[in-house]
Amino acid sequence: MTLKEKRHNLISELPTLLDVLNDIALAEEVFQKTTPFKGFFPTHYQEGQFEAMKMPDGNFILLPLSLLPYIYYRGESSYHPQGKPSLYRANMGESKVFLARLQTCELELLMQEYPLTKIFRSGIYCDGNHIPLSVDYLALAQHYGIATELMDLTADKWVAAFFACTTCKDGVYTPITDENSYGVIYKVTFMDGQFSLDDKKINSRIRVIGLQPFSRPGEQAGFVYSMNKDENFNMMCTTKIKFRHDALISNFIFNYTNRSERLFPKDILEEKAKAIKESKHFSRKAFCMAKERYFSSVDDDTIQGWLQDENINIQESPTTSFTEREKQDFYTSWEKNKETFLGQIIVRKVRPGGTIDANKK
């Protein structure tokens, strides 16, 4: 038997992506029927909504709700032995890492000026509660295509399935039809603030992205896992489900996401982020932020060398900005759509006071 024939036989024995999704759906159904904590976890009625959760700093995150709590997924259309986030891949030399950090800081400064970002930070009123919201600028940079140390995760099995059965070229996703190939679904377990690593436990580096001032992370029920340079995601995630590609299933899932448009809705940040990614001109404010945040121990000569290697120009003005018309258009749209936005958010009400022993008469 040739190596090609052996590969074909091995792939033919794998489940399809629909089989994998069916197993996940069954686990969701079993959990819903057997959990003794009904009322604490979402049902089908809350799936796709976001729960306001207070963090230690007093701000809130908007947690994507799912039918199987503390389980997250990642889908890849092929298996990569070295599971690395984009910032740590082989093509990223020191100067390119510096460029990515500049892009991240430039995008952050831009996002800070968007009206909805300011509303998030000052707080929204939902069900009579004042909720100041966190904005995760680094995770937003990741979602809009800038290289970071983050690996994307999702609480939505269909989102993971989409990335597992499509390929992307120049920002355009298409379904995979090569049936002599395979992909992988990663299943990550996160319980009690810990990430499962074989028989050990490490402090969690999974964090919620959820609903943000820009729509993409919310549509993708987004979470991220922050990695170090020498780590391999394949070694850290113990549950990897390989599946064989099937053209009909890939097209079905692709169409289920409205041919990717549901997960990548058009928004004002998309073109702005693209302009930053394609530019070699960055503001001095972004340069100083990147230097202080990421390269405070690096000498000026080294940084000047990176600037020359990447043909980077530092200027006083930002790479791009929101026009006054764009900001005014937001406020007009916000007045029309505010209630729809707030309708996605659940504020869980709790009874103040001590606990009562239910066994006592």
Short overview:
With 361 residues, the chain is of the alpha+beta class.
SSE layout:
Elements: H1 3-12, H2 17-34, E1 50-54, E2 60-64, E3 71-76, H3 94-112, H4 115-122, E4 124-126, E5 129-131, H5 137-143, E6 150-154, H6 157-164, E7 166-169, E8 172-175, E9 182-191, E10 194-197, E11 200-203, E12 206-208, H7 216-219, E13 222-226, H8 233-236, E14 239-244, H9 247-256, H10 268-278, E15 281-283, H11 284-294, H12 300-309, E16 313-315, H13 324-342, E17 345-346
Parallel strand pairs: 1-17, 15-16
Antiparallel strand pairs: 1-2, 3-9, 4-5, 6-13, 7-8, 9-10, 9-14, 10-11, 12-13
Helix pairs in contact: 3-10, 3-11, 3-12
Large-scale geometry: globular
**Strand segment count:** 17
Largest sheet: 5 strands, antiparallel
**Rg, Å, rounded:** 22 Å
User: Approximately what portion of the residues adopt beta-strand conformation?
Assistant: 15-25%
**Uncertain stretches:** 191-203, 351-361
Overall mean pLDDT stands at: 91
* Gap from first CA to last CA: 74 Å
Strand and helix order: HHEEEHHEEHEHEEEEEEHEHEHHEHHEHE
Number of helices: 13
Helicity range of the residues?
25-40%
Structural class: alpha+beta
